[in-house]
């Protein structure tokens, strides 16, 4: 990284810390599969915090819990459309689905009943469940986005039931260990920042409590160093190791519900926030607990991300800060595109399928991608375009856009030669309305003609 860029990143961090009176700030930038910059300002126990200093990450914990749930889904142990009652029976809110809990569309109350859970020791699952026997649902499930810390307490219990262990033990075995997150824990271990509230009208501090949240811990319990959070940011961008398939993480980044109106800037997927900052669509999660703020964001298209940790209850605009760090890198040191290289091999049968196809009179181009994938795109550039991955003999499955999840099938004649493509009942032929026998409703036997004809 250029020294001028490193200075620009440090200056942006320094301005945030000084102008918003933050006791300490640490940040990191990631690109692809590595961390390229870290910086720190302020003091922890009289010294500048290091990349090893722990901070509480609050609701970023939710993205870890969501990953545990998606692992269960990928293993076939649950379906996202399953009602909670199938796996955690007997609750007063058993009709809400796993997907709704992940995306904050279950309608569940935002906070657990009783005292302010972030500042008080938490009880166990049975106590949380009893407190939710009445008034748990504030909205019709699926009707709207309503952020629910309680919903993630429920998901932690779901993980525990299906794994036969605590959610924390599952976290350590399935995520923390495999990703090498040596400084991620439910409580501070070793060098850690103290959580402070900064007086609004004087430069004095108030110590904030950091109790164990009990059954609500899956909503915001974890502590993390900036080194570990940088690795987690790379995970969100697709550098997933063996923890999840990158396609599953991409699914988590897809918008499930929009949080604001009109030209949206904030949305939520399956355990991940989706934001528009500086004209970029980035994914990650923010965290806020008494005494701490945290944020991790990454642009999946470029692989550039940033994460920030602060030990203040409020005041620092760390979402904007993380977005600005990404923008500085992309503006002053954009990544070079990967070199194009010719394919090492290509299936002649697939190569013969490439070129122009027609949906009715509309021309499309079919291109062969690596690993036998196909890309079907309108010649005009307007309309439905999708990529397809192989799923069987002469079949492919859509992976994005309108045809995501739909089947593209190569159809053959009696002589086994390809005749047309069937894309979820839409027929594509080499010539406009060619292969008349395959066209639903048939083709006028008089063929193409003028108005007078």
From TrEMBL:
SUPFAM superfamilies: beta-lactamase/transpeptidase-like. It comes from the Bacteria. Coiled coil: none annotated. InterPro entries: AmpC-like, Beta-lactam-related, Beta-lactam/transpept-like, DUF7586. Transmembrane segments: none annotated. Residues 347-430 form the DUF7586 domain. This is CubicO group peptidase (Beta-lactamase class C family).
